[in-house]
Amino acid sequence: MAVFTSLGLSEWLVRQCSQMGINKATPVQENCIPAILEGRDCMGCAKTGSGKTAAFVLPVLQKLSEDPYGIFCLVLTPTRELAYQIAEQFRVLGKPLGLRDCIIVGGMELQTIAMNKPFFWESKSEVRTVDELDQRYILTPEKVKDSYLVHLIQKFEDENSDWSIIIFTNTCKNCQILTMMLREFKFPAISLHSMMKQKQRFANLAKFKSNVFKILIATDVASRGLDIPTVQVVINHNTPGLPKIYIHRVGRTARAGRNGVSITLVTQYDIHLINGIEEQIQTKLKEFPLEEKDVLKILTQVNVTRRQCEIKLESTDFDEKKQINKRKQMILEGKVSSLLML
Ligand SMILES: Nc1ncnc2c1ncn2[C@@H]1O[C@H](COP(=O)(O)OP(=O)(O)OP(=O)(O)O)[C@@H](O)[C@H]1O
After folding, report:
1. Domains of the chain (ranges plus CATH)?
2. Pocket of ligand 1 (CB under 6 A)
């Protein structure tokens, strides 16, 4: 690993990095920072949690410090939460510059920016090595996905004093129901999905980051880029349909060289999806050992609780299909870009 000064970064930036515990450059930083400093267009591709943000934030700050004038940099992100997270990195690293930033989310038109002759760097492996991330699966019968989940969380709670879990699920409705259900079981759970008001999304994320709530139940709105170093476990409540989504989701743990576990709940109908994932990540998922009889003990209680939560949700105005249709209509009418809907 190279030290930052050897990559051409100024002393003040190296000092800022070391205050954040960043002393040696990761491969994506080592390869991209000099190219960006040379003024070349650059595309960097590396595994999750490997410091891609600092790979562009650092050279941007250096260039800005050399000529601190005007609107210098526009960063586009796939989700609103990520926009705030990246702005925070700019603020922390760029503090000595008195950097001013502006976050724009939702409700604006986007324009395409043309790039020519980019420098392209891709790491050999885009996915985690087994050393850092222990990737597991649990084969579950169809309609008892939820009992396994409750049992798993119970197990983590019993075995660890300090724990934090992200559970990914496929729809906003499922996300909402799972949160209600886990709360019935007195778990400290909170949700994050795109049917929530933005203010609530930020508030919930902040509560999870500060460990007030130890379980975040989220849709794929949280699967890209979120950097919460304390997350030890990612549970896929549904098997992701695409390997790329799997890679992004499980990449929310084992960040920056830390260890982590991912557990994917798999039904007999998802085996082909797991095969596709294993092929892409070139790793065989290992089975997560669980005592089935312990799961069966809570089966009825979990099913009844879930049904009660579904009934409770039906009595509210939570209508995911209606929301989706409304958004599609807005995109069709050109009132908003699909990118800004995430
Ligand atoms: N050189 C470094 N040494 C140690 N930690 C680092 C280094 N660079 C960045 N980090 C830390 O690593 C963590 C992950 O960085 P970052 O969020 O940029 O990863 P990423 O590659 O963008 O991940 P993802 O693909 O999931 O978005 C952050 O907490 C960041 O502060």
Report:
1. 4-122 (3.40.50.300), 133-323 (3.40.50.300)
2. 22, 24-26, 29, 46, 48-54, 225, 227, 229, 251, 255-256
